[in-house]
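[[Sequence with tokens]]
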Amino acid sequence: MGEFAYTLRVRFCEVDEYGFVWHGHYLAWFEAARVEMLREVGLTPARLLEMGYLVPVVDIRLTCKKPVKADSEVIVLASLEPTEKAMITFHYRLIEKTTGQLCAVGSTAHVMMNRREALLYFIPDEVRGPLDQLIARYPARMDQPATT
């Protein structure tokens, strides 16, 4: 048990004129970590679409704690919140690899829809099983909000 870890190195094109990572890239990094976590159980966005499901983001939260500079190595730690309804919430922590310092925290919430864009009430069994595997491996810590 723990958090899914996705490591990357900050590219020069990801920093702003101050030399810090532009905050919008954190969301792209969260997405990359989320997709790789879901890949572990075969739930890539393409596979979900093949199964007939759309899983759009409906809520994004991001709190920046410490600026990240070009060429730094960072780790995105991702976890998954248990749910009974057709909403999937991921939590993220962005850690500077060399110092271990927390740079950002956030979350994304996604709803499940069918191809006709109708909201589902519950996660279908063919998706629930793999998600439950991920929740068992990478459970979100529910004792603190994603933005602390």
User: Anything to note?
Assistant: The chain has a mean pLDDT of 94. The longest strand covers residues 87-96. The domain at 4-137 is CATH 3.10.129.10 (Thiol Ester Dehydrase; Chain A). The first helix runs from residue 24 to 39.
